[in-house]
Design a protein that fits this description.
binds adenosine-5'-triphosphate, alpha/beta, Rossmann fold, 10 strands, six-stranded mixed sheet, binds magnesium ion, globular
Length: 258
């Protein structure tokens, strides 16, 4: 990039505030994520990491602040109690198509094959033809190393295999940003390694990711940046080496069990 060019963040949260009833979980989150960047979102249990990801793709409403995608306003906070207008709901649907999300629990349809699970959204949401959706799904299944399980039902697969299928399903929407919420915390160490390998490969492909994890070695290995959420705000932001160093305030080091 020429020195004079100003990089537009691919994803930007500005002053995002979220409350549940009287309890303000997020008190004004500011975060910029550049295209191709992998940002680890760290913080103690209950600090609001999942809530933040869910607000970003509007699975949860938030009350104040805004989210920009590729420099354009993608959503704005809506005061408590006011339901989304039809236009806002349509915008929320459009936004969710641009942000893939993978959860701790895989949420695959248990009786449908891996292929059918991965094809579903491209068919129904993107309106792709059966042939195109199938080719896309097969490509994504190959990307996560699951070819041999294409026709298996998730309930016959290990947790790691199911999680890789869930990643393929998110990728099949070709999202601009992938939000991953503790995707290995229900897995044993061997399955965790196989899923991490897939995430590292995606990072190598330049996919922009926000990665909530308690696994600090994984964050160090995989992320370009780490942020710590504490008391509703971004309390630290930098390279994983810098954030997870002695320079981090003692209170945060203790909370992260550093
Ligand atoms: N639907 C809800 N209603 C009320 N409070 C909620 C709701 N969901 C989450 N909270 C509260 O909001 C806070 C943040 O929760 P969140 O799940 O975002 O934390 P987290 O950082 O993801 O934690 P963990 O590391 O345990 O996954 C917690 O105090 C939680 O109890
Ligand atoms: Mg969480």
């Amino acid at each position: 990039m020429p020195e004079t060019a100003v990089a537009t963040a691919l994803l930007e949260a500005q002053g995002l505030k979220k409350r549940y009833g009287d309890f303000e979980v997020l008190k004004g989150i500011d975060l910029k994520v550049n295209k191709g960047e992998v940002v680890a979102v760290l913080g103690p249990n209950g600090c609001g990491k999942s809530t933040f990801l869910r607000c970003l793709n509007l699975l949860e409403p938030y009350q104040d602040g805004r989210v920009l995608l590729d420099g354009e306003i993608a959503s704005v906070g809506i005061p408590s109690g006011r339901p989304r207008t039809r236009a806002e709901e349509a915008a929320a649907q459009a936004l969710r198509r641009r942000m893939g999300m993978v959860f701790q629990r895989f949420n695959l349809f248990p009786h449908m094959s891996v292929l059918d699970n991965v094809m579903l959204a491209p068919r129904k949401v993107r309106g792709m033809s059966g042939q195109d959706a199938r080719e896309m799904a097969e490509r994504m299944i190959a990307k996560v190393g699951m070819n041999e399980f294409t026709h298996r039902a998730p309930k016959t697969l290990s947790g790691g295999q199911q999680q890789r299928a869930a990643i393929a399903r998110a990728l099949a929407m070709e999202p601009e940003v992938l939000l991953l919420d503790e995707i290995t915390s229900a897995l044993d160490p061997a399955m965790t390694r196989e899923v991490f390998k897939v995430v590292r490969a995606l990072a190598g492909d330049g996919i922009t990711m926000l990665l909530v994890t308690h696994d600090l070695p994984f964050a160090r290995d995989t992320a370009d940046r780490a942020v710590v959420i504490h008391k509703g705000l971004v309390a630290a932001d930098g390279t994983p080496e810098a954030v997870l160093s002695d320079a981090l305030p003692a209170e945060l080091r203790e909370l992260l069990a550093l």
